[in-house]
Amino acid sequence: MRLWVCIALLSTVLCASAGRPAVVERIIQAGKFVRDAAGGAGDMFRAYQDMRKANYKGADKYFHARGNYDAARRGPGGAWAAKVISDARENWQSGVSGRGAEDTRLDQEANEWGRRGGDPNRYRPKGLPSKY
User: Fold this and answer.
1) Rounded distance, CA 60 to CA 73, Å?
2) Which residue of 1, 20, 61, 86 pairs with 24 in a disulfide if CB–CB is 3.0 to 4.6 A?
3) How many domains is the chain built from?
4) Whole-prediction pTM value?
């Protein structure tokens, strides 16, 4: 009887410590990527809302960098969402806003800086309220 109890306990321990199948791991990774991407999109939207609320001249680069920075900190999904949203925004704005290629290039530089983990305060203008 003791032998069977020991075998049962050992089997339970071995099964509990066994790794998950590769398919299950991939599904979990995909779910985390999607969760990070959704959170990153939220970070980007929050930075956009703050930029609109602040309505501070010369602060757009700061908010671009901050949104990308916050999104990228979530992980690969957040960085991917930040890149897709930033690229789409710049492609759309470059044809509509009339600010020119130089402004688009500087916006993209700030986007990249934030996604690479650079401090967004590099682009913070003097006088921007501290709540941002």
Assistant:
1) 20
2) 20
3) 1
4) 0.81
